[in-house]
Amino acid sequence: KQEVTQIPAALSVPEGENLVLNCSFTDSAIYNLQWFRQDPGKGLTSLLLIQSSQREQTSGRLNASLDKSSGRSTLYIAASQPGDSATYLCGGTSYGKLTFGQGTILTVHP
Amino acid sequence: GAGVSQSPSNKVTEKGKDVELRCDPISGHTALYWYRQRLGQGLEFLIYFQGNSAPDKSGLPSDRFSAERTGESVSTLTIQRTQQEDSAVYLCASSPSLGSSYNSPLHFGNGTRLTVT
User: Fold this and answer.
1) I want to staple B45 with a disulfide (CB 3.0 to 4.6 A). Which of A63, A77, B59, B112 is the partner?
2) pLDDT (tens digit, 9 = 90+) per residue, B30-75?
3) Would an 8 Å CB–CB cutoff place B104 in contact with chain A?
């Protein structure tokens, strides 16, 4: 059974700082690893998807890495902005099912 | 273009009543997923559909929960004899066909907030 863990549970940083969110998973037989953001009262918005054969994906100020052997993924956010404040969720897809971590609540203060 | 649509957005019901939650996926998406998110907690997988079939129902919490999908489109999640512990946001997501869904991101609706009093 896939289990996904995210640390830290919450993070508060000043605007402009670079930061890293961590995600670990127990079953390395994943098809992909996905990162999402969730704003209060909203659904999830897909940020990045890393296929099992890939090591990283980049979109703008976001970079996500995947290391299947160690069961880890990181989301790097460069030059953080107050608009980045949200809950960030990672999920691993195994056999059609996407299992999520508990999320990291990010607050970027001006 | 239309995204995943869920209705109602909010539902308040009395304990013991039945409720139906609806999900309209993105047109052409054959994979459809239901998740539950309790207050302050992560997403809990309930069930997913490939077309009208549900290969994995392992996440349904009890036999009070059921889901169906018709026409490879709309899905309905039904909760019978609701309990206070059922209070949560129920999220629906869709993605393209199974062959590519493993490497296609999920598109989520805004959810239905269910409150059982």
Assistant:
1) B59
2) 889 999 999 888 899 999 998 999 988 889 999 999 999 999 899 9
3) yes
